[in-house]
Amino acid sequence: MLRALRRRWDAYKYRFVPWLALNLRRKRRTLRYVPESSQDKIISDEDVFETLLKVFKALFINDFSRHAHILALLPEIKCTVYRKHEPIFFQSLGNPFIFRCIDGVLIDGNDKGLSRSVYRSCSRRDQLGPFQMNDESWLTAALQNPLAVGQYVNNCSHEKAANVCYQEFDVPGYFPVELKQYLPNIVYSHDIESHLRCVVLVALRDIKQGEELFSNYYTVVS
Predict the structure, then answer these.
(1) Strands of 106-108's sheet in order across
(2) The model's pTM
(3) Rounded to the nearest 5°, which phi and psi values hold at 182?
(4) What distance in Å separates the CA atoms of residue 211 and residue 222, rounded to the nearest whole number?
(5) Dihedrals phi, psi of 204, to nearest 5 degrees
(6) 96 and 202 in contact (C-beta within 8 Å)?
(7) Phi-psi label, residue 210: left if phi above 0, alpha if psi -120 to 50, beta otherwise
(8) Spatial distance between the Cα atoms of 123 and 145, rounded to a whole number of angstroms
(9) Which of 74, 96, 107, 204 could form a disulfide with 79 if both were Cys (CB 3.0 to 4.6 A apart)?
(10) CB-neighbour burial class of residue 79 (10 A; exposed 0-12, middle 13-18, buried 19+)
(11) What is the mean pLDDT of the chain?
């Protein structure tokens, strides 16, 4: 019983504001500081866009292995995207995979339970004839986009410094329709016109093959 409660607390505490306030000072190495939100990006949106295009085109022609050299390291968090006013309470219960963007947009990267059902429902709602508007394969064992694993990256620690960092990216409206099938993201509702929010991981240094990835779970905008 106590062990089960401890697991639930460990999953929830990072969203409990009083706990965060008390622990920020003690966990300075596991935090990332930026002076303002506009300076949060490690690489430009244009570079992210071009890299995604190259990766998805390689996947489209089934030639990913020969084009792996183009990656600066760009895993993505697969998710349902919620705007600030949209309901996410029940999906958030016991869910350690919710990412909060700087502007308050919430990203649910859970592949189980209610979160899974919501993502699948939204995906089928948005399908455009024969064209899929997002990647649904990450809910299965047969991944179509091998980079859709961003939410499984662990938090850095005092012993293991971050080697990647999260970066928000809004997919432009002119993104090729035939390549949207590789985007592992979907908006919860489409009654408001807006760009699709993605979160990618960008390498802070050269990453060796087989090396574990660590990121800062928190970015403090001062």
Answers:
(1) 98-100, 106-108, 79-82, 185-187
(2) 0.84
(3) -100, -5
(4) 31
(5) -90, -15
(6) no
(7) left
(8) 16
(9) 107
(10) buried
(11) 85
